[in-house]
User: What shape does this take?
Amino acid sequence: MGYVRRRVRASADAWAHLAGGSGTALLAWGALLRVLVVAVAGLVGLGPRAVPGAVRAARAVADRERARLSRLGAPLPEVGPSPADPRTALRDPVVRREFGWVALHAVFGLGTGLLGLALPLHAVQDLTFPLWFRLLRPEDGAPGIVWWRIDGLPDALLVGLAGVAWLVAAVAFGPALARAQARPGRRLLAPPPGVDLSLRVAELTATRAAALDAHAVELRRIERSLHDGTQNRLVAVNVLLGAARRAVRRDPARADEILERAQQAAEQALGELRTVVRGILPPVLDDRGLAGALAGLAGGCAVPCRLTVDVPVRCAVAVEATAYFVVAEALTNVVRHSSAGAVDVTVRRERDRLLVTVSDDGHGDADEARGSGLTGVRRRVEAYDGRMTLTSPPGGPTRMHVELPCGS
Amino acid sequence: MRIVIAEDDALLREGLALLLRAEELDVVATAGDPDGFLTAVDAHAPDVAIVDVRMPPTHTDEGIVAAVEARRRRPGLAVLVLSAYVEQAFATELFSVGATGLGYLLKERVGRVEEFLGALHRVAAGGSVIDPEVVGQLLARNRRADDGLARLSPREQEVLALMAEGLGNTAIAERLFVTEGAVHKHIRSIFAKLELPPDDRADRRVTAVLRYLNDGRHAA
Assistant: This one.
């Protein structure tokens, strides 16, 4: 019993595979026609301009087949982008193999697919024939066999018996046909020997370079903020302390005034140091992710804050840290300067960009030049090749929009 | 003494001005960027300029470039450059135009007001001042080099370092706890080893310092 069940299940799977394969085979026909047209155009000297289109068409169908085969069995790795230059593309082994596969699959794949699907259909048709043969005239013959005159139930039952034969054939040959149909794809759509590794190396090299770049940018940013902020504050503290020591003997009241300034500078240094440290990598990002971290910011904001976060996929850590920093700075500004009654924060990911918008209903007139955190925001956003726009007419409202590339 | 201050950090700029004015020095103008500084130099005919190395727009060596330009516009202007960290390339760039009336100090030296004022006065009087930290780095780099500097004894190197800071014989003697006569002897020996002829009309102390800096440049 178990054997039969296994056979039936294998056959059903095979028929599903054959149906899917026939689908990609039909698409392969489209791509094949396009490739043929381009080939003919090339032969009569119409230039290689149409080549990239044909390459893309074949690649699209091939990728679909790769994905289908990967779902059904051993995964077929994705291949990188095909070369843009027509000549290079036509020499590319991956492209050549895809062209070959398109032709093979269009003809052979569709053939095996239709044959494989025809077997069970015939089986069903013939098996059920005794139930509906009376609807036909006797001279119409059996399904598919017009010269077999059906004169009564015995004949119809005989046809039903043929249906059993069909069914046996379908169960016996279905899985083999499905395998045969998939074989060209498994052979030709796998990366050619040697190519797989080099692609992988190129990809890894690129991502590694990008990571190092981002790392350098981050270090430079931290160096800058430590140097231009904290260190200068401490130098000022030092200068003022020196001045105060000199003043102590001559004019103690004056000395106290200078010490007061020195203390303010020290406090500023501490504040800036806090900002720098928080900006490096807010621990809350690690703990709760961007949405959670932003929710914490919004919840702690003195002005009522409405937060919308639509970021289904996590971005690079540095990008998330920057987005967090942008929102934190913007909210600080809203609380300190805008006298707003409400603030809206929207963060969403649109393809490879992270969009951050902070808008309030305050009195506007925010000015980057007046030493708010806005300069810091702009500097940091631009360090990541991002863009920041600020609109803040006198009377309000203020709207800050930041776009950060977040790759993928 | 008429002083112009160029420093982009407002708090530090005001702190400096406050410090100098408390010492009854005449701060005639302050500026936050190179252009403002050059305008102030043109307008106020200062004797001394105190210039921060990192200034807008790129926060790299704008201060040095501006100082060199100010010296070109106003020969004889003494310049004391303040830097947040030791960058020997900046020092060599600065001293490439000569060493009289030039100084290069770390910002934190300003807190030691007496020494800072001493340096300011030495520069204003046409002397040269180089931060001990710069000198220390140069010495460390040159220790193995096979040249005049390498032939100096440790004591002579110390003396040369203090000369580079712009100290006179008396001050050097005080720092090293030796007699002035001993300092004089060391200095003669230094000049001999660096092959600076006694009849050279240039200020030999400055030449020695420049030799120092140039060696630093080759070693770097």
Notes: Residues 216-220 of chain B have pLDDT under 50 and may be disordered. The longest strand of chain B covers residues 26-31. Chain B touches chain A through 20 residues (CB under 8 Å).
